[in-house]
Amino acid sequence: MASSILRTEKLCKSFSNMGTQQHVIKNLDLDILEGDFTVIMGSSGSGKSTLLYALSGMDKPTMGKVFFADTGIQDYSNDELAVFRRGNCGFVFQSVYLLDNQTVLDNVLTGALIVQKNSTELVNKAKDLLKKTGLNDEDLNKYPNQLSGGEAQRVGIVRALINDPKILFADEPTGQLNSSAGKDVLDIFTQVHKNGQSIVMVTHDLKTALRGTRVLYLRDGGIVGDYRMPPYGEDDLKERRNKLTAFLEEMGW
Predict the structure, then answer these.
(1) pLDDT tens string 76-89
(2) What is the model's pTM?
């Protein structure tokens, strides 16, 4: 049986808005197992991205605890959180945030060299990962403004995977891509999950959610639905879509 890789106890996150406290995440208990592909869904303003940032150490909770492999990270300093994220987490965002003055290869390597010191080995690993996402040798020396949206997101995924993260966090990774590029990116997520990668992804899109093995539905800062599926490709896609749609409609999606 898979062990817990990430869990929360009474997690709360509040923001001050013109003197009023806005409670976005409320007393949330959550357990994520190693190897799961967890998808977080919910209506706009339900707290999806806020939860993702709290789970990943990108933002500190107001109250409660976040455990990564039984180690509490909620009291880490900002410097300790930065070290934690570099060593354990990969991030893929809706906007890729590549450095405009660096090539594709350099964008992948910049953060990785802080963690891994063997530059030759790292360069070879980066090239191999980039090729696996469909980028060719001629793409390695391109700059971000020479890439399509789908190509840029592939670079972002490789950048997130280069340090072998324990968890890959993704926030609407296909949100700015056309359907073809979005499918290519989702295929990469599916493949790395099959290779054992734990993933936590926020999305509002049904096609994206279908790639998960677990869908959490968030409403008013709490989890109101928890739905499990077999790994993508191991069941009938039409039936998978129908069952997930029925679950989401029950949740008020």
Answers:
(1) 999 999 999 988 99
(2) 0.93
